[in-house]
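Before a computer can learn anything about folding, someone has to put a protein's shape into writing. The three-dimensional part falls to structure tokens, numbers that each stand for a local backbone shape. The protein below has been through that process, and both of its lines are reproduced in full.
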Amino acid sequence: MLVTACRFCPPLLLLIGLLVSSNPIGAQFSQQGSKLVGTNAREPSEQGFSVAVSGDGNTAIVGGWRDASQVGAVWIYMRSEGVWTQEGAKLVGTGAGGGASQGWSVALSADGNTAIVGGITDSDFHSLPGGGIGGANVGAAWVFTRREGVWTQQGAKLVGVGGAADFVYQGASVALSADGNTAIVGGYGDNHAVGAAWVFTRNGNVWKQQGAKLVGTGAAGKSCQGQSVALSADGNTAIVGGWCDNERVGAAWVFTRSQGVWTQQGTKLVGNDAAGNAVQGYSVSLSADGNTAVVGGYSDNQRVGAAWVYTRSGNRWTQQGAKLVGTGAAAAAAQGISVSLSANGDTTIVGAIGDDRLAGAAWVFTRKGGVWSQQGDKLVGTGATGAAAQGYAVALSADGNTAVLGGPYDVPSVDPYGTPTGTGAAWIFARGEPSEARPDLNQQGLTGSWYEAATSGQGLEIEIFPDTAPGTGIAFVGWFTYDMVAGGTERQRWYTAQGKVTTGQPSAPLTIYRNTGGNFNAPPATESQAVGSATLSFSTCSRGEWSYTFSDGSGRTGTIPLSRLTRSVTCSTTPPYLASADFALSGNWYDPAISGQGFIMEINPNSGVVFITWYTFAADGSEVGAAGQRWYTADGPFTPGMRAVSVTIYESTGGVFDTPPPAGAKTVAVGSGTLSFQSCTAATFSYDFVGGSNRGQHGFVALRRIGPVPAGCTA
């Protein structure tokens, strides 16, 4: 029965980013380990002048543009079980001309396997037609890729065409799409400091410039466009900052791509509550969907500094709320010299190098219901030597739970020209549950929705049945994902998995199953086949890992870092484990008359949301095999004590198995439903599809819980 009964419906990951922050509400950041200082640096290197982090927060890159007399370099770090270590030697791109200042800017793809490094003073000296020498400080960018822990340069350096002969400073800023196949490179010096940005795309291992350079319209004088750049996850939205526009008021421009062609979207963005010459656009960042932007201006209000948030509806951008200014700053903090957004756009970090006489700091803000508020105190890393200028660069992981702060002046010194410099360093901060100890797997509190931010739109629903035997429980996992090729609903795929969890063991082995041969909400019972194995583990109540190997001939194997989508309700690192009457309704539910399909639900009173995932099949058995699988997600607001919840039903298409969402991936509302609980073991779900592949379907499902009733359940 455990194999064939439907019970494992996946979580709704694209949607969750829209409904509720994926961060545990109220959780605070704390420093993770000592500061990071790369080996084999040639002083002073100013490590931390630029930083970036992968979507899962487990790979970080730190740039040091002054290394080896301004040749520059970058260092890569990896996190395992909360411990950061350097990965390989420092990276220095080949083909540079002179002291290129590599590491002036850096960016990573979502999976952390592609890096781009900007070097603004790279020079390609050549004779000019009218006499003289050109090519000074044109700038460039280098791409590196990682395979099995080894980093190598990919192709020649990237230099955009169509720019000025010298002092373009390409590489002043860089950004990558989630899949690493689109790059944007800013050059604020182009055309006598009008500035520009260049887009490059990768096909296989080959990079080519896409279209002409991007220059925003409506600029006032020298605008320094390209001082900062950012891309959406799909690479189809770009934002370009120009800090010196309109005599240093500053601005930002948004561009969108359609069928390979880039066009400006709307007018330039300028905050409506700036004070003085704010240098808006000195830093910029975008959410994964490109609908939220944050723009930093460190000189606002006599260098107090600030950040502005904008949101997009259709093709229109508007400022969201007042400018963000962190409290607790010491003197002119220069907030906004750096900014970064989480994937869902609900968390932003704002760096400030001037705080406390150049000690530097960063502030974190979160959004709920369209309102932004500061979260906790400012972040300042321990172990700094001198005025480190922490916050000169900042980066956030996709889930917003890992932050990187660069401090390029740590261990300060002075160069031969009397300019302050330093060895530099980077600090990591992590946000999670109050206790970061490893939780016991044999507890109900790990039940819930889990995902990887880099592959938002697919993930896992997990239910733990604790103590089905002394010291042993059962783990049920529902995995909703896609085929290895993008397409419509026929490319949706779902799997179930199950295995034992044992008190005191760090991981649990599970068997992966595939169900086929069903009809939408109708008999017969499905056929279930074992197609692989998996290992489930949790490092904290908010982080885990899912390693899988398929035996179905597909050759698929990999590891997915997991983050909890909602705030933990009852998870604990030590017994006794709490019970929650509402949360105990979460779990696997099905109709015994149509075994092999059903629902997994998370009823989360802490986040005020119910999430439903529905594993089923195409109507009337119209498609056979795995192509006949279908899954839906649903959600609705929840308040403690509710036993009848109205939800919206969504259909997702266009994704690719364990891969960041491609440009065509989408989730659309296709119907509505009502979930009603009659008891801890009986419920009903009524549905009405008004769109999507199931348009016109409406009906009623009588549900029964699978497995024992969790502790504390009342209905």
